[in-house]
Automatic annotation (TrEMBL):
It catalyses: a 2-demethylmenaquinol + S-adenosyl-L-methionine = a menaquinol + S-adenosyl-L-homocysteine + H(+). It comes from Helicobacter magdeburgensis. This is Demethylmenaquinone methyltransferase. GO terms for biological process: menaquinone biosynthetic process; methylation. Methyltransferase required for the conversion of demethylmenaquinol (DMKH2) to menaquinol (MKH2). Keywords: Menaquinone biosynthesis, Methyltransferase, S-adenosyl-L-methionine, Transferase.
Amino acid sequence: MDKQNLHSTAPQEKQDKIVNMFDEIAPSYDKANRVMSLGIDVSWRVSACKKAFEALGKENIECVLDVACGTGDMLWHWQNEANKAQKHIAHLLGIDPSSGMLEVAHQKLDSLLKQGRLRLEKGEAKALNVESQSVDILSIAYGLRNVVALEEALDEFVRVLKPGGVVVILEFMNNEKKGVFDSLMRFYTSKILPLVGGLVSKNYAAYKYLPDSIQHFVSSEKLAQKLLDRGVKSYFVKSYSANISTLYVGVKI
Ligand SMILES: C[S@@+](CC[C@H](N)C(=O)[O-])C[C@H]1O[C@@H](n2cnc3c(N)ncnc32)[C@H](O)[C@@H]1O
């Protein structure tokens, strides 16, 4: 993938290149993720599930949709946290355009698939094959940065959510703050992470894309405003681990 020109590439071509990149790194994706985040991403995911359950306030949840589900980590956490909180999720649905990532998800989530409670589907955030107003919780973890058609995707999220439904976004947001610590974190994500991710996956270019995509992404304030413009009110917004990862939880009015 030619990372140099990615941000000036035509939208569909850019999207195709991003998806191809995920196909390439899919077999080593989970391992690289755990090494790069030192396992801390698990606590960010758990917090996301807990806050979403709190915002929704229901014991019986009809449908949880994880967009950009990748290798299925969030889907696994949704089920695990629901078990711990004694909540019941009737249907889980994971959507992602990368066949490689979905293949890993199929292997990891075999038992949920066999129970018939999980569906994994190939597709993009901008055109979800999901009925309007049918989803209780929609999550997207470290996926939104990769969605080229951001505005269309946000429209889709709001379309498929029930009124009172919850949007959960975990993302490496563009941190525009200028403090010393913020600069140190920018150095870590732009110089160290690509080296570590590149070493584990043997694909340096794919992990060089990570800081580039963060730099081109919106801030959490701008994202919250875009959702508010569409009728989704912020419920909880917090940056974790020195502003590396941000959790946004919003409720559709
Ligand atoms: C960094 S991975 C995150 C995977 C998973 N959500 C996780 O938390 O580990 C980003 C995912 O976004 C997916 N993706 C890329 N473009 C997308 C799009 N337009 N719509 C939906 N998903 C997309 C990729 O295929 C990839 O699986």
